[in-house]
Amino acid sequence: MSSTELTSTELTGAAVEPAETKAASASANAAADSASDVSDISAGLDALETQTVERTPLLRVFTSKVLPPLIAIALVLAVWQFAYSAHLKRPDLLPSPLDVWNSLHDQWLQGTILSVIWTSLSRGVLGFLISVLIGTPIGLLVARVKPVRAAIGPILSGLQSIPSVAWVPAAVIWFGLSNATIYAVVLLGAVPSIANGLVAGVDQVQPIYLRAGRTLGATGLRGIRHVLLPAALPGYVAGLKQGWAFSWRSLMAAELIASSPALGLGLGAQLEFSRENLDMPGVLATIILILLVGIGIELLIFNPIERYVLRTRGLLTARR
Amino acid sequence: MTALLTEATPVVDTAVRLDHVTKSFGRAAAAHVVLDDITLNVAPGEFVCLLGASGCGKSTLLNLVAGLDQPTSGTIDVPGGRAALMFQEHALFPWLTAGQNIELALRLRGVPRGERRAEAQRLLELVRLGGAHGKRVHELSGGMRQRVAMARALAQDAQVLLMDEPFAALDAITRDVLHEELIQIWQETNVSVLFVTHNVREAVRLAQRVVLLSSRPGRIAQEWAIDLPQPRRIESAGVADLAVEITDKLRGEIRRHVQH
Lengths: 320, 260
Ligand SMILES: Nc1ncnc2c1ncn2[C@@H]1O[C@H](COP(=O)(O)OP(=O)(O)OP(=O)(O)O)[C@@H](O)[C@H]1O
Ligand SMILES: [Mg+2]
Prior knowledge:
Radius of gyration of chain B: 19 Å
Structural class of chain A: mainly alpha
Strand content of chain A: under 5%
CATH topology of the largest domain in chain B: Rossmann fold
Number of domains of chain A: 2
Mean pLDDT of chain B: 82
Order of helices and strands of chain A: HHHHHHHHHHHHH
Oligomer: heterodimer
Strand order of the largest sheet of chain B: 1-10-9-4-8-7-6
Number of helices of chain A: 13
Strand content of chain B: 15-25%
Order of helices and strands of chain B: EEEEHEEHHHEHEHEEH
CATH superfamily of the largest domain in chain B: P-loop containing nucleotide triphosphate hydrolases
Largest sheet of chain B: 7 strands, mixed
Distance between the termini of chain A: 47 Å
Helix content of chain A: over 70%
Radius of gyration of chain A: 29 Å
Mean pLDDT of chain A: 80
Distance between the termini of chain B: 35 Å
Number of strands of chain B: 10
CATH superfamily of the largest domain in chain A: MetI-like
Bound molecules: adenosine-5'-triphosphate, magnesium ion
CATH architecture of the largest domain in chain A: Orthogonal Bundle
Low-confidence stretches of chain A: 1-32
Number of helices of chain B: 7
Low-confidence stretches of chain B: none
CATH architecture of the largest domain in chain B: 3-Layer(aba) Sandwich
Shape of chain B: globular
Number of strands of chain A: 0
């Protein structure tokens, strides 16, 4: 076929002399006229049909996104302060928000806070990355190979319902009080959820994309690379986000139970340490840190990625 | 103006050849015959419209020609290799821009990296969307999406272009514009087109030959050769007259089913 040899000037001008029964040359002029006519009409239609998407102004973002959580936090603090002032519990059992703040401040002055966070965060991130490397091929196999799905699909989703803390005793027996124990628990928590996310993502791919890919010649590995994986990306990213939450939770469970000086002081171990010292402000301060790190990673890393993936596919407005 | 083709004209070389093709779904006793003994040839450079009521097996036939499905019996031959298929829905990949969709088709065809961008741009200009290269699929209107899908199908540079009701969901004016563009592209390239529709006027507006399929099972009921000169207008008297004739026949086909 000759399409590759055509230049665009030929295309907007009169039709190239057609073969056999195609338009008679007498109609070539008419064709040229109607060609410019058509381009006017289609340009007009395009202008009518295209919409420009405006970005929401900053003030609206502030009032709709930032303000509500700030108000919620202020309310919680107010109730907490009220409970403290009303002496609902002994002050050593229920410290005031200020006590907790002071505890955080002391840790900051001692310079331990960052190293404790870093110990846990680096473990969490490393465990998560290993989980991604293991969970992704497992997910792909389960999603695409029928016998594999029949064999381990149900187990994989069943694993997600086991609380990670249940793995800690087993891991301690296998690996002792070592980093291996901690990573084993993190992997057992995160790998199934990452793999399941990918399976769900692949299952939700519309068949029309796979068929379109096949007619374009994307079969076998090229089909997986150019069609299946990109089409499954939203589900995969959702799985990764959940995988991070599982990693972080499992890590805290592992650090809390398998705490030993040899393992270094992470947030979980610090929580246990504060409990032993009956340091309630320290316990609450550590819980707040665990929450902040978990939410922070989600807000700073996973949410932007997820929003980007959904926005480029035009799925974001539909979800809101 | 119209001629009834009583016998298939002997074709020396063909772009698509269906030989006694039968397709049924389901197994053995419960099998449900969708296409029954279809023999159809499309000549190189020919524009054929396949017309039939909803559910008569038009999409099934195109899927068979595109190789997405296998016939139950009979043979299908596309001597020029793979046929390009344009689906009823645009089926563009939403994770790519309009231009990248076309570049992917070029890449899968084996066009070297350095040439893809310019070639994609040329194809977009062919469908009058020169400015749409970086647009995401969801940012395009329905008519623009169909045109990008057309450009992507053309990017495959196949000898045969299969189109499954590509303009069915569009308003009349946009559809007129796309008809005009399609005919121009067809005249400029030497592609064979097998175009499915259930809109009789659309078929008469576009085709050199209209093939009417009956329903349940799908068989070739009748063929018309159309020698009205292009460009035609869908509202012209010539198109309307022939459309009336074909519509009557189509109604007859459908009525045949209601009665028993
Ligand atoms: N995969 C399938 N399994 C079972 N039956 C099918 C399958 N695909 C199509 N059919 C049946 O085959 C018949 C023809 O379907 P097809 O989609 O080809 O119709 P069509 O002519 O394209 O209709 P429309 O104009 O509505 O698009 C229908 O009765 C449909 O139920
Ligand atoms: Mg159909």
